[in-house]
# Entry
Amino acid sequence: MDDRYGRDVLARPQRAKARVPEVAADPDLVVEDAASGFCGAIVGLEKSYSGDLVRLEDRHGRSRVFLMHPAAFLIDGEPVTLVRPRTRGPRPAARTASGSRAAPVTRARTARASRIFVEGVHDATLVERVWGDDLRAEGVVVESLDGLDNLDEALADFGPAAHRRAGVLVDHLVAGSKEARLTTGVGPHVLVCGHPFVDVWEAVKPASVGIDAWPRVPMGTDWKTGVCARLGWGEPRDGWRRVLAGVSDFRDLEVDLLRSVEELLDFVTAAADDD
# Structure
């Protein structure tokens, strides 16, 4: 007999796929990033070319940013999708340039044994511009290598150990690159993090420096020189002034650089003798 309603009454009913609830990303809501296990309170929301970002701050005052992918977070162990609140809540007043909750004004902490190494002066200056308050509060020194070729020598002089960790921030850290080869086998107590951009300038959002996109530079041409020529910025030192002037806080940087620096800060501040 034909089923006039188009269904088989004897067939096993199909369960509807459970829908992951959407939760407004309100300030101070505590959530867990399902992929990394990082748990913290929501302290800010931002936009990036990859999508909306949420900044979480854990009970130790460490903060990280995460993309607001569907079902990417947990509340009480259950998956949720964070969405922007319909009405913006009150913005916390005291924040550092990195987005962390600002600590009361005190003298800078005595320098830790652990250290963060960066490729050059521009990397060091941008890290100081955005994370300077955090670095002083945690007592972390950032040292320029003046080129990644000097990494092995710098690490040999530094002598990484359980009580003195070394974090290394690397430009253009992609599979098959020179940078990837130079940072292979760095040994224990060393963490290498990086971003995919050819130069740290490119980790600054184009809109922050008043351009639509960073220009492509042919291989064999010095990247900074080629960029300045194509943008009419004059010499690289003139271009650097424009780049630095465009950076006020973490909103001006791409998420790849933000994540790498914050991961390195977590790593070096967790060394054995730092408490």
